[in-house]
Write a structure and sequence with these properties.
single chain, alpha/beta, Glutaredoxin, 5-stranded mixed sheet, 6 helices, globular
Length: 182
């Protein structure tokens, strides 16, 4: 038998985390209200980004390829810079230099990272249109030396949810740099 606090926790997790409602500035000059952004796609992948993280840089090509592969299936990829020194100007410069086909959202106060329990760059979170978390963890099992035989946790999770199921692993370890919060 579940206690009342356990029931309340289970209900809150089923509904999804309480996400920030304020707009996020982004590298493309737009402001993104997360609720509206999530509602516009079947699934949204938030990949947490750190400007100086070599592990993030090593994964750039994999994230870009993943975004292109899954876009036609109703999946949108966004990066999120939750570091204390994040700015829209720096995000725009990073997005242009790294040839990202998706925006970087600026979460300088770390509110989105905290709401989703994220502490490391390269952490990916798959959210349903209503905000429920379906996967949280690494893009894959690699750090900087990317191996083709490495498990691709994020792609596996997306394949599962797009097929109407649940990921085999709904949470994995992210191997990125520690995010520097305010």
């Amino acid at each position: 038998m579940m206690t009342m606090p356990a029931v309340l926790l289970a209900l809150s997790l089923a509904a999804g985390p309480e996400l920030p409602t304020t707009p996020f500035a982004a590298s493309d000059g737009k402001a993104y209200v997360l609720k509206d952004t999530l509602a516009a796609s079947r699934f949204t992948v938030l990949v947490f980004f750190a400007h100086t993280c070599p592990i993030m840089r090593a994964h750039d090509a994999r994230v870009i390829a993943l975004a292109q592969k899954y876009a036609e299936k109703g999946v949108r990829v966004l990066l999120v810079d939750s570091e204390a020194d994040a700015t829209a100007e720096r995000a725009a410069k990073d997005a242009a230099e790294r040839h990202y086909p998706f925006p970087i959202l600026v979460d300088a106060d770390g509110a989105l990272a905290h709401a989703l329990g994220v502490r490391f760059a390269t952490t990916a979170v798959v959210l349903e249109a209503g905000g429920k978390v379906r996967y949280r963890g690494g893009i894959d099992a690699d750090k900087q030396r990317l191996r083709p035989e490495s498990p691709f946790y994020l792609a596996d999770a997306l394949d599962a949810v797009l097929a109407g199921g649940s990921p085999k692993e709904s949470e994995t370890k992210a191997l990125g740099c520690v995010l520097r919060f305010k």
